[in-house]
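Section handout 9: paired folding examples.
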Amino acid sequence: MLSSLPDYLDNIILLCDSYKVSHYQQYPPGTEKVYAYFECRGGKFEEVVFFGLQYILKRSLVGQVVTTEKISEAKEILKSHFGRDLFNEDGWNYIVKNHNGYLPVRIKAVPEGSVIPIRNVLFTVENTDPNCFWLTTYIETLLVQVWYPMTVATNSRHMKRIIADYLMTTCGHLNDLPFKLHDFGFRGVSSIEVSHTYRPHASVLSRVGETHERSG
């Protein structure tokens, strides 16, 4: 079972909250366009560092990510999961037939590394094929994982600002600032399995978020 896990991680159809599988049946008749957005609603800081979306897109959403083999795999797994057939097989086959397995969605985002006030749109998602209106929010589960590198980068930014204040107070310069906040991201996740959820593993992704703000 463990040896098959990488295959599951490479099947975009299975990388979602399971309740999304039946959402295509719940849209009003005639729906053709679904437009969604992601924002940081609030928190301990008034600004956030937007970071990590490019990794998610290139890891899971770019290229021919849907195949007939993956559709068959998902159909079998989801029927076992739900105990009945709720899978949108026709919808996924349509993507293979009409888009060669590429996802017909458009994603727009602020530049990676931008510092943005909370309660602002950070990225948007919309379907580009009216027959795939259901796809916009199907991929939400993957996209919102951007919270993790964003949180690491945002926390690191604020920690670095605190360190900078005390460096100026005690040393009068910021020459050593990039080396004053060190990375222990691997030990910061809950398990080795979690750290290998993505390739590169989660601790590396967190460290990318950290090194966006420092060198140590």
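Moving on to protein 2 of 2.
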Amino acid sequence: METITRNVQDLLAFYSVAKEGSFTKAADAVHSSKALLSKQVKALEAQMRVTLFHRTTRSLNLTEEGRFLYSYCEKIFGLTEEAGKLIKDMSQELSGNVKISVPVSLAETFTASFLGQINDILPNVQVEIDASNEVRDIKKSGADFAIRSKDNHDPDVVARYLGRMRDVICVAPNKVKLPNNATPEVLNKLNCIMHAPSRNWNSWTLTSGDKEYVVQTQGKFASNQYTLSRKMCLEGLGVARLPYFLVADDIKEGRLIHLFPEYKISTHSFYLVYLKETYTSQKIKTTKEAILSWFKNRKDIFI
């Protein structure tokens, strides 16, 4: 069934001509041509099978059908203009909802201080933290931002580099006794807590100046979550490679011992990922800057 909404441009052409009372004035108002507007109005009349204007060489008047249609056009395009203004106002408002996807291991550290910071900046914004290690399609997940550790990203997203994660090797006290001259090679012989999802992560590269050691770890226990690996390590079940931010307090308070602290461990990068948008609301801009600010110079997270 054909409707007058099939071609909104024709309807807008009719509305402009009726409002201005002239094809010439309407063409100037909408930055079009008199010939194009005439063609569009004729197409609308043909579609509706009615005459919308009484045309003479000196005057242009609406028919009864034309007046009826014009009254509805005033409502339609008036609402469109109003909606545009409201959306523009919304884009400038610092209110609404923001969803941030964060890896499970980072969620507690990030959430604890970031939410307080963002609440001071955006008191009227509701923030949802989605703690997950699953790399979801950011469009389908509904997240405004995602903090990710993979280096390859979809072409329709922006990936802002945050830094390389700082890992440490640690063990429960009294579980391992190393000689003073021990090197990271000894890790090949120790029971290590393995990383379940990717066996590649169980190859540890440690560097200090021009010294480099590549350790192929082995062990009885494995986990796919850093938080579980930390608990295993605290229970004395093996040597673990863990993010420093997760065990900083444990090391400081003596629950864990930091092995080979003079060595750095090759690790992966963090990125702030969000969709490419032509227009970005002030709420999203402010949240993005707050996230970038929070991660800046975090020595407990990055090398």
